[in-house]
Amino acid sequence: MDMISFQLTFIHIVLLFPGGNIWLWDIRDALNIENGFKCKTYFFLNRVMRSLSICITCLLGVIQAVTISTSTFFLAKFKYKLKKYMISVFLFIWSFNLSFTSYLIIYSGALTNMSETKQLRVTKFCSLFSMNYIIRALILTVTMSRDVLLVGLMLVTSAYMRHQWQHKYLYNLSHLRASPEKRATQTILLLVVCFVVMYWVDFIISFTAAQFWMYNPVILSTQNFIMNVYATITP
Fold first, then answer.
1. What residue spans of the chain are helical by DSSP H?
2. Radius of gyration (Cα) for the chain, nearest Å?
3. How far, in Å, CA of 181 to CA of 66, rounded?
4. What 8-state DSSP symbol labels residue 85?
5. Residue 198 has what pLDDT?
């Protein structure tokens, strides 16, 4: 749990910086870094941290659900394996998201003189470049499949945690005082619900912008605000 908490805090602190889009310009001006490199860094960091956010948040919900679950042979065995291979799970999550998001290094950069049909202007100086239809469909399919699976898993584990908590404490007067287990479960439930709501609002905005190949400044500001709120309260 400490490793997950540390990673979630780190991810969302990093996510806040490129979300403001200010510190990168300061670094660029100080080090004389070209716009293209700055834009690639901005898009890559932002998308990697968002992907890690959903993966680690889902993992947090799964571990808490297993922790408070009724002890059975299967769950006891699963708890042991989860603890034993936790480092491997983290390495897989980070490796997958870093490699999968690497396409942004190729298809993002500084705003150029190309026609608007070949680039999607996201910020004042940065844009996404048009990509092959098959590549875009593949990326969208993998992203949606991953997100639907993880959000679905979050909802299932949240429902299970709530059921377990009610089963254990609802009719037990001796446990009316909030126990550490109860407080942890309530906090994670709140975190997961908050994440699911904000993530899907962000996903709808991103999906609509990609489909219509248009990013309105107001919509972009709204999207950044939503993600920044979650990144602020999560740690």
1. 2-20, 23-31, 35-68, 73-84, 86-100, 103-106, 133-169, 180-212, 217-233
2. 20
3. 12
4. T
5. 80
